[in-house]
Amino acid sequence: MKSIVFSFKKRYLFRRSKGISPSDVRFFIRRYSVVLIFVSAFLTGLVFGSIYASKADKQMLDSLDFLFTTNLDARLGQNAVSTFCACFASDFIFLTVVFLLGLAPWGIPFLPFVSAFKGFGTGLTAAYLIVTYSLKGAGFYLLVVLPGTFLFCLALVKLSAYAFEISKQMFFSLIGHSHQTNSLKNEVIDFCSRSVSALIMTFCSTLLDTALWCLFSGAFNF
């Protein structure tokens, strides 16, 4: 009898884990719909940045170097402290903009553009290095630039999703559809806590960026 029950359970579990059903996909989309919005915005910006890299002139690239790594000669001439400050300052600007938009009831339509602009700069940097330095540029980006950028982009997308929810709640509270002041207050406190976590994650990504620049940038002769 036990063997029959065991074999039945085994066949049931195997049948359950055989594939992903449409209901699982719908649940995933509902559960992570806000995150998917910002991931899609980031990927869209990434594509446009990659396309634009072949058309961008040097003056344009130099002007964007404060936010993105588009002036390689200047970055390679910096010491560790300057590299850390440059990387952290650009990432901090993005976090600050997302934080302020999250605390504004009108921030909902503007938040995806922040992720899209970060994606644009990420694609621009990657494509610029590959187009200008071919395989050497691709190796430099994958080894030196990408790890810290990937870590920060995760923090930015997660914080943007939280900011979207807070901004939405503030908007509905403002137009009178919600009167849960205490609940909104708790959500804002939680958002501030998550913002601190994103800032710590950004600090760690900047440390990683600085370490990789100091360790491996000298191995590439540009």
Gap between N and C termini? 73 Å
The proportion of strand residues reads: under 5%
Radius of gyration: 22 Å
Helical content band:
over 70%
How many helices? The count is 8
Mean pLDDT: 83
Low-pLDDT stretches are: 1-15
Order of helices and strands: HHHHHHHH
Shape: globular
Indicate the structural class: mainly alpha
Q: Describe the biggest sheet?
A: none
Number of strands: 0
Tell me what you see in this structure:
It is a single chain. The protein is built from eight helices and no strands. The protein is mainly alpha-helical. The chain is globular and about 60 Å long. The termini are far apart. The model is unreliable at 1-15 (pLDDT under 50). It comes from Ruminococcoides intestinale. Keywords: Membrane, Transmembrane, Transmembrane helix. The chain crosses the membrane at residues 80-103, 110-133, 139-164, 198-220. This is Stage II sporulation protein M.
List its salient traits.
transmembrane helix, Stage II sporulation protein M, disordered N terminus, 222 residues, 0% strand, mainly alpha, transmembrane
Chain-wise SSE layout:
Blueprint: H1 2-16, H2 22-31, H3 33-52, H4 58-63, H5 72-76, H6 80-102, H7 111-174, H8 181-216
Helix pairs in contact: 3-7, 6-7, 6-8, 7-8
Describe, in short, the structure shown.
By secondary structure, the chain is mostly helical. The chain contains 8 helices and no strands.
